[in-house]
Amino acid sequence: MADPQFNRVRPTRASTYVIAQIREAIFSGRYKPGDRLPTEREQALQFGVSRVTVRDALRALEAAGLIQVKVGGQGGPYAARPDLALLTESLGTHLQMQGVTFQELAEARLAIETTAARLAAERASPDDLEELRAAIDRPREPEGGTAAQSVDFHEALVRASHNAALYAMFMATRALVQQAFDTLHARQPDMAEGARKAHTQLLKAITRRDSETAIRLMRDHLYDFARRAERAQREADGSEGTRRASRSSPPGPANARDFTTSGTTRAGRSRPPTSR
After folding, report:
1. pLDDT per residue over 58-102, tens digit each?
2. Are the C-beta atoms of 42 and 3 separated by less than 8 Å?
3. φ, ψ for residue 152 (rounded to 5)?
């Protein structure tokens, strides 16, 4: 293919303009996944900047997952193929650093998974239904099996929606959902059986193409998740209070331990959504 001509850029913040033009070239389809971009030297001439500036821009684009720089005889910059794993890792890390609470996670899941349940009831294929059934019927592993099984069902349900945007958003939060399930399943053993019943009912509604029932069942299921998170928070607060009392700490303001997705929820933010 003929290389598109790039415009010369101003020296000030030159790499920013280089990045912007290459991004536009990829997003507009001028370069498709797997296409080779001009070499570093060729780009330096087209942009009218140094090779160092081009190299910095290519590094930033590679970090963003837009290009892949290969080495060897056919080396050089190539337009990257979409990689959901990069989004999952990047957004998952961001949410972890933000200290996302179980409450916030529950609210995000309501937005994603109730819509996914409706679309799955409308669009699920026979293979999708079989995958959902397999996630329910899979033999439970002794250590953490029920939590993993629950996450697998939810992933299969979102995939059955056949909506790439919903699936990408779910996968970006999957690690956090898994952490939350691991914590709650370990502290509340009855959660596994409750999830199994909810999943079975959801599968029946989706199989019947009953989207309204699927939405209601998913909403109730996620409300239960939020209530369990609140209960775990109260128990954690109670345990912390008991430990403080046993140490005969002097009276003072309580520093309630956070109960975020790594095991705790920030104080004052653990109230679950209430059913209307």
Report:
1. 999 998 889 999 988 788 999 998 776 666 666 666 666 777 777
2. yes
3. -60, -40
Cα separation, 263 vs 233, whole angstroms: 10
SS (H, E, C) 82-118: CCHHHHHHHHHHHHHHHCCEHHHHHHHHHHHHHHHHH
Maximum CA extent, the chain: 77
Concatenating the DSSP letter of every residue in 129-184 gives HHHHHHHHHSPPPTTTHHHHHHHHHHHHHHHTTT-HHHHHHHHHHHHHHHHHHHHH
State the pLDDT confidence band at 11, using cuts at 50, 70 and 90. low
Judged on CB neighbours under 10 Å (0-12, 13-18, 19+), 88 is: middle
C-beta separation of 261 from 102 below 8 A: yes
The pair of three-digit structure tokens given for residue 82, joined into one six-digit string: 């979409």
How far apart, in whole angstroms, are the C-alpha atoms of residue 168 and residue 174?
10
CA atoms 163, 202, 149, 235: torsion sign = positive
Range of lowest pLDDT (39-53, 194-208, 222-236): 222-236
Q: How far apart are CA 257 and CA 162, in angstroms?
A: 40
Please, which contacts does 64-72 make with residues 24 or more away whose CB atoms are closer than 8 Å? 66/22, 66/23, 66/26, 67/22, 67/26, 67/37
The more confidently predicted of residues 106 and 252 is 106
Q: Enumerate the domain spans of the chain.
A: 14-79, 86-246
What architecture is the 86-246 domain classified under in CATH? Up-down Bundle (1.20)
Is residue 143 pLDDT above 60, yes or no? no
Which residues are bridge partners to 79 per DSSP?
67
Class of domain 14-79: mainly alpha
